[in-house]
Amino acid sequence: MGSISTHNTTLEWSQYCNIIDGDLCTTPRTRHGINPATGKANPEVPLSSQEDVDRAMTAAQKAFKQWSTTSYDERRQAVLSFADALETEHAAFSSMLTQEQGKPLQFARMELDFAIQWLRGIAKLELPQEVIEEEDRKIVVRYTPLGVVVGIVPWNYPILLAVGKIAPAVMTGNTIIIKPSPFTPNGDLKLCELAQRFFPPGVVQCLSGDDELGPWLTAHPVPAKISFTGSSFTGKKVMESASKTLKRVTLELGGKDPAIICEDVNIKEVAPQIAQLAFLNSGQICIALKRIFVHEKIFDEFRDAMVEATNNLKMGEGNEPDVFLGPIQNSMQYDKVKGFFQDVEKQGYNIAVGGTNPSGEGYFITPTIVDRPAEDSRLVLEEPFGPIVPLLSYSTYEEAVEKANNTMYGLGASIWSSDIERANNLATKIEAGNVWVNSHFQLDPRVPFGGHKQSGIGTEWGVSGLISYCNSQALYLKK
Ligand code: NAD
């Protein structure tokens, strides 16, 4: 493997390297992702070996000694400067995001906006320190960094979700190794390359690889914590592997978010929003709407308005104008989503809109609404992570809440009503980490994000997100 210094270099978008100990490192073997809209190969990226993992771990441990003793303010300045640099590189990152992830350019730009906002928002947070007693002795509860952290990132929001791990980890004095998804490695490698200008060698590193890399990282004895975002299935494997050395884990996993549509909504206004919240990012969002419960009194009218709104959503390659849905990100996911279509067809469920998928280049799936499939169907129980959603009905609010909660997931949910008091009241009855009234998917770096039940363990972002990267230490000091 070779290495190139990162000092005084500008970002060069044709070569992609691992970031180890402040250097850009190549590997003897490489691999690449695929542009999901065209099927063309993306630029080659490193294929890390176990030896690369060991080197990154050693560098992270070494860097931790210094970084954990720098002042909070110094770390904050580094994160803020990183945010400014990302803003300068906004256009190039957005363009690569559309190329490797498939999302329309307008939404790629939005992801970059969020990433910058998250860096700045998390940098503003203060890590609390509590004085419990100050008489004969002083008792202080403070938070100390854990050490080396591994951040494992999925392919749906590769930039935002990487930033959402880097910022709190380094703010609290940890060092972090980012592992991008093999499907979207290019942007994350550049993100960590950019970070080298603001953080000492070994503080922010990045390793790209294939399916072996994640298990090597979670099994390695050095990391104190794994921050994982991905499916509930993989999250369980991560937790099992981390348990061997009692690594801390934060698990941000899958969802099956319900929307409860009350009978008093303004149908013309709400139905298009619901369609967009189900089909944004082609349904590949942990908190996309994945079950829509509509009051039986307005069911037909609401369904027809959603169908009309869905017909207006343009699908295509992300650089085309006005595109709302890009392709599914990868072939594995494409086949998985198509499995839901096959099941719907086999069961003979009614399709309100969509249903047939284009053939040809790219993993395109038509946004599809299925009208009242069986409540124990795959589409109602499982997470397709694609643009196919069940529309269901209910007759009482008690029944709606019971159905909304009838899932192993508990990530997000929303209540839609003109009666705010009713909606707020229903919101408190939902078993989920994030519940919105008359909106959905509105996130904030100041607010802890996490799931109930099998949607995850712990929270990211907000002050409790910072604390999740720390040990709690009680100091009993003599005065
Ligand atoms: P995934 O679980 O397949 O992969 C996520 C990451 O884990 C990738 O980087 C992958 O390479 C890595 N990985 C795979 N096997 C591993 C192993 N054994 N050990 C360690 N790492 C391993 O998920 P995905 O398909 O990339 O993402 C889609 C899923 O992520 C959906 O279920 C979605 O709901 C969920 N998600 C959750 C959130 C959240 O914040 N809760 C956000 C985005 C996505």
Task: Show the helix and strand layout.
Layout: E1 3-5, E2 18-20, E3 23-25, E4 30-31, E5 45-46, H1 50-67, H2 72-88, H3 90-101, H4 105-124, E6 130-134, E7 137-145, E8 148-152, H5 158-171, E9 175-179, H6 185-195, E10 204-206, H7 213-219, E11 225-229, H8 232-243, E12 248-252, E13 257-261, H9 267-279, E14 289-295, H10 299-311, H11 331-347, E15 350-353, E16 368-371, H12 378-381, E17 388-394, H13 397-405, E18 409-410, E19 412-416, H14 420-427, E20 434-437, E21 452-453, E22 456-457, H15 462-467, E23 470-478
Parallel strand pairs: 8-9, 8-11, 9-10, 11-12, 13-14, 13-19, 14-17, 16-17, 19-20
Antiparallel strand pairs: 1-3, 2-3, 4-5, 6-7, 7-23, 12-22, 15-16, 18-21
Helix pairs in contact: 2-4, 3-4, 3-6, 4-5, 9-10
The chain binds nicotinamide-adenine-dinucleotide.
Nicotinamide-adenine-dinucleotide is lined by residues 152-156, 179, 181-182, 214-215, 218, 229-231, 234, 237-238, 252-255, 286, 383, 385, 411, 451, 456.
Which hetero compounds are present in the coordinates?
nicotinamide-adenine-dinucleotide
Helix content: 25-40%
Number of separate helices? 15
| Beta strand % | 15-25%
SS content category:
alpha/beta
Tell me the name of the CATH homologous superfamily of the largest domain.
Aldehyde Dehydrogenase, Chain A, domain 1
Unreliable stretches (pLDDT < 50, length at least 5) are: none
CATH class of the largest domain: Alpha Beta
Rg, nearest Å: 23 Å
Strand order of the largest sheet: 15-16-17-14-13-19-20
- Overall pLDDT confidence: 97
Counted beta strands: 23
**What's the architecture of the largest domain, going by CATH?**
3-Layer(aba) Sandwich
The major beta sheet can be summarized as: 7 strands, mixed
* Intertermini distance: 55 Å
Number of domains: 2
Q: At the third CATH level, what is the topology name of the largest domain?
A: Aldehyde Dehydrogenase, Chain A, domain 1
Q: Given the C-alpha coordinates, what overall shape results? A: globular
